[in-house]
Amino acid sequence: MDFYTISSNLLYTAFVIYLVATFFFGATIRAKGSAQRTSRAGTIGIVLTTIGFLAQTGYFITRWIASGHAPVSNLFEFTTFFGMMLVFAFIIIYFIYRLNILGLFALPVALIVIGYASMFPRELSPLIPALKTHWLYIHVTTAALGEAILAVSFAAGLIYLIKKVDQSSFNVKTFSLEFVLYMIFATLGFILVTTTFNAMDYQVTFEYEKEGELLTSEYHLPAIVAPYDSEMVTEDRFSPLFEAPSWMEGQEAGRKFNTFIWSLMAGLALHLLMLLILRKRVAKAIQPLLSRVNLDLVDEIIYRSVAIGFPVFTLGALIFAAIWAQVAWNRFWGWDPKEVWALITWFFYAAFLHLRLSRGWHGEKSAWLAVIGFAIIMFNLIAVNLVLFGLHSYA
Amino acid sequence: MNKIKCECGHINPEGTVLCEACGKPVEKNQHIDGNDKGKLLNMRYDGSARRSQTYNKTVIDKVWNFFSSVKVGVWLIVLALIASAVGTIFPQEMYIPPTVEPAQYYRDEYGIFGQLYYQLGFHNLYGSWWYILLIALIGVSLVICSIDRVVPLHRALKNQRPKRHEVFIKRQRLFGQTERVSNTDMEAVKENLKKKNYKIYEDHGHILAEKNRFSRWGPYVNHIGLIIILIGAIVRFFPFMYVDTYVWVREGETVVIPETEQQYYIENKDFILELYDPNDERFSEAIQQEGGMVPKNFQTNAVVYQVKGDTVPGSEPELEKIKEGEIRVNEPLKFNGFALYQSDYQLNEFKSMSFKLHPKNNAEDVIGAFTFDMTDPKQEYLLENGYRIVVDQYFPDLEIDNGEPKSKSNYPRNPAFIFFVYGPDIEDREVSFLTIGANINPGNQNQYKLSLAGVEMRDVTGLAVKKDRTLPIFAVGAIIFMIGVVQGMYWQHRRIWIHPKDDGVWIAGHTNKNWYGLKRDFESILDRTSINPPEDQQELS
Amino acid sequence: MNADRKKKRFVFRAIVLFVLIAAVIVTLVSSFMEDNPVVKAGDMAPNFVLKQVNGDQTFELHKLRGKGVMLNFWATYCDPCKEEMPYMEQLYPEYKEKGIEILAVSLDTTELVVKNFIDDYDLTFPVVHDKRGDVMDLYKIGPIPTTYFINPEGEVVRVVKGPLTLNRLEAYFQEILPGQN
User: Fold this and answer.
1) How far is A93 from chain B (nearest CA, A)?
2) What's the pLDDT score for residue A390?
3) Which chain B residue has its CA at the smallest distance from C36's CA?
4) Which residue would you say has higher pLDDT here, B528 or A160?
5) Chains C and A: 3 or more CB pairs within 8 Å of each other
6) Are B206 and B248 members of one domain?
7) How many CB atoms lie within 10 A of CB B260?
């Protein structure tokens, strides 16, 4: 067996272990206050999580050996690493607060992230000259860790909101919360749709012209939306309903936009199915399970994970990024969209930390902010490459 | 303007919310921190007198107070956040192709919104006066907020006494009462506090245990770091601190490096472009997806020269080699404060072209040959046997404009020639018009033909020239900022008060973050004593 | 005592605000200044030496003191430059008499194309060749043509970007005629 195969197997292993650990954390839901801390299921859960994390570390190392460079250089590798850091951040916060319920929310987020990652091309890719520097590893790993710790505040914020938001009526709050859950369903939808059509080996090709060059775009999902000003060259396929707008700048924007629409639709289908089964809003259905959760503690975890994550994020996503940019492109700051969004994230959490100084922003408002912060991070990780153009097109 | 004398005897400055010494709420100032009778005390800045909250007489005071508000600061941050986001909707001007007219580009590419975007000046948002002003105002807010808070907070923490007012103790978030406490228990608690690294201050049985006070200064330290970074950004606008320009050098050429006052020249000895081997087993799949061409290395072998002595620009300078090296992406070449970065290249410009003259119908019977060197072209080339070529016109970069040939640039990218051929058996002359891939023979009566016999190509390297004396400022700012945030975020200022009450004690605790940690501290400190652990009086849920 | 403290506080705040506002203004102003210090009207024209293409002379700018100088940066591949060349040629004999020198600095890479151009256009005023581009860098020339009108004292009187018409050219010559004051 070569290192590449070993590494792929280790990643599968880690994924499955995380999944099992999630169920053990789920089993702690009935335990009361202090009993929760010492719950047996919780202990098994965290042990499994740690083993899973070690397995994923094994994946990381073996893949590094196989390719000769740290596996953080394309979208699959980076996103997988982000998932791994999420687990790591959860383990840290767990050992500070020993809150089992956090595992029930943080691990699924990590699972979805890793699942999402594996939808992208997984083969080893060579490094282009701009990426050939240790600052690549230093910047990307630290930034991912910072974002992962900040993401734990999202998991905690979700717990807070599901328990706290009054579900007796349908209003802006309950809708927003349900919408947050819908985004998770949409990600699941993406994974589902991609896997299904990949298994069917579905393929349709488009041709279009850009800056005088004839380019092709290969879809692996049925085309709802075609690339801007393109022509379908594969026969016997659904013809697309419309074309992507011209302002979508990214590489293969049409294909990505098509995937995006598919994900939203699949997510909607999943969500509606859940609503049908539960016969109430999903958040409302989860709410009773969280009856024993101590909201004060959850609020503190929201704040604490931002407090811990913020310096790491600053170091990785701004300072190390600036050093690398200085070395590679001779300007430490260039107003590239990805850079700007890192700055926006930084502004956002800086505002969050300042708002915590005033009383009215603890609790529910903090929880909403944690959710918005995570949305900004995710936007930067995913959407910036879809609609905006820039230097970071690789990841 | 009256000082406030507390019943404990301490004299507080105007605007104090909680007495600096004993913590007793100052009756008339409770509105400042929104304290409500019977509810928990707001402990931010320890209830010290932020000056801004009090004096409000002159314009200076009013401006000062405006910027001293954290609320204003947060609003400025939010505005900067929104503005920054707007700037990413469409590419900024610096990222659009340099050859097109921006107004037209935005209209053509992004329609009506693009046009609006351009007209509002968002195409250059981060350099616009209002964005710079916004960031500058955040800087102003940083300075004033910090000055206004760090001084009183320092005063309050310096003046605090172990003996606190009962109201203060009672209205802390963590508060507990115990009816009866033995001396041995008290001693045990003190021991435990020391074990937990608390510093203990005692006054007639009243105990203040404190640790990590330095973390309270974290925010102010990181603000200093940010201010230094902003200063760096200001200094950057001055040209002597910061040079950013570009130079294209052809292989074999030596040119002046711009912005160096004609002091430095650079020679491009060789430009190298390496690709990944598509047969590399590890990467073959990925390389195939990229179309087989994945660059591995861009490199310029360069020599830097300095001008010796005083020369008037334009005259042949005397050059002295000062540095020779390889410039790669991520590996700039540095000399005397300047750095050269590999940033662009152009492959295959013509360096020279060789021609042979032969009878029109027989390419084998070569009469003569010559080489046209693009770097040093001659007007006339003499061949054997009395044949002679005169260069009538040379177009380095041919373009046909209304039927007229002309050159659109300096660079031999698409060279074309009009040659006159003279010879003993040629009446007058023969005219040949040669372009890449064509040999046009006006009149079509030539007996001789010029054919391309060979070419020599060369590459061009694009180097960014940088001088940045502001980098150390940014580095220092960033380091101080990091020290500040870590100091403020990874340590917490924890205080525990033990207040004797009759035969028992009241205990209270405060921390600026991580209450969970403080509660755990209490658990281990009160472990195996008769003192009751404090209750969390906050009611979030 | 109280009044004293109040005054101190006022002065302190005033100073801090003044410094901050000054910093903001400096930032705003300097962000709008031209990045590169270019040669502007009112500056002394920097000196250089270049060899003539259509003749054997070497021209050093400082040695032309006492004459008005029209310093024209151009290239053979630049269309607008070609437009103004005939006007310069037309006015040259008359104004040379009156004490004005034209110096056309070619930014082409090879002398051959310049020579061919001179032949085609029958130029008689001195054309010099900036082979290494250092005079171009000295004057920070962006788009061409760019023309400097330099008075007999060596001071730049006018900078014109873009091509000139015959009328404007003649009008600007009046500004640099020697012996005006």
Assistant:
1) 12
2) 44
3) B239
4) A160
5) no
6) no
7) 23
A128 Cβ under 8 Å from any chain B Cβ: yes
Strand pairing of A225-226 and A242-243? parallel
Residues contacting B16, CB < 8 A, separation 6+: B4, B26, B29, B47, B48, B49
Q: Are residues B67 and B145 in the same domain?
A: yes
**Are B370 and B444 contained in the same domain?**
yes
Looking at the 3D structure of chain B, how many domains does it have?
4
C156/chain B closest Cα distance in angstroms = 18
Domain for residue B483, yes or no? no
- What is the domain range of residue B390? 351-456
Residues in B 416-435 with any Cβ partner in C closer than 8 A:
none
Q: Which of C8, C15, C21, C24 is most worth mutating to test chain B (most B CB atoms within 10 A of its CB)?
A: C24
Q: Is residue B229 part of a domain?
A: no
More confidently predicted of A15 and A333: A15
Q: Are residues B31 and B151 in the same domain?
A: yes
Q: Which residue has the higher pLDDT, C89 or B310?
A: C89
Q: What single-letter amino acid sits at B239?
A: P
pLDDT in tens, A86-109: 999 999 999 998 889 999 999 999
Same domain, B140 and B11: yes
Nearest residue on chain B to C130, alpha-carbon basis = B314
What does DSSP say about strands C100-106 and C68-74: parallel, antiparallel, or unpaired? parallel
pLDDT at B152: 87
- Mean pLDDT value of segment A323-350: 87
Q: What is the pLDDT of residue B541?
A: 41
B202 falls within a domain? yes
Spacing of C-alpha B141 from chain mean position: 21
Give the distance from residue B180's alpha carbon to the nearest chain A alpha carbon, in angstroms: 27
Contact B235, B194 (CB under 8 A): no
Residues of B in contact with A135 (CB under 8 A): 330
CB within 8 Å: B474 and A332: yes
DSSP B401-467: ETTEEEESSSSTTB-EEEEEEE-TT-SS-EEEEEETTEEE-GGG--SEEEEEEEEEEEEEEEEEEEE
Q: Helix or strand or coil: residue B248? A: strand
Q: Per the structure block, which two tokens stand in for A116? A: 């999402």
Contact yes or no for A126 and B287 at CB 8 A:
yes
Q: Which residue of A has its CA nearest to B343?
A: A329
Whole-structure pTM value? 0.81
Cα–Cα nearest to B386, from B411, B357, B415, B407: B357
Which stretches of chain B score pLDDT less than 50? 1, 540-541
For residue C76, the chain B residues in CB contact (below 8 A) are 407
Average pLDDT over chain A, rounded to an integer = 87
Closest residue in C to B235 (Cα–Cα): C27
- Nearest by CB to C115, from B259, B379, B410: name it: B379
Question: Do residues B397 and B510 both lie within one domain?
Answer: no
Give dist(CA A249, CA B88) in Å, integer. Answer: 12
Q: What chains are in contact with A, requiring at least 3 Cβ pairs below 8 Å?
A: B
Q: Which residue in A295, A304, A336 is closest to B540 by CB distance?
A: A295
Alpha helices in C99-133 (DSSP H): 111-121
> Residue C4: is its pLDDT beyond 80?
no
B56: in domain: yes
Looking at the structure, tell me whether residues B92 and B54 fall in a common domain.
Answer: yes
Domain boundary pick from B140, B157, B174? B157
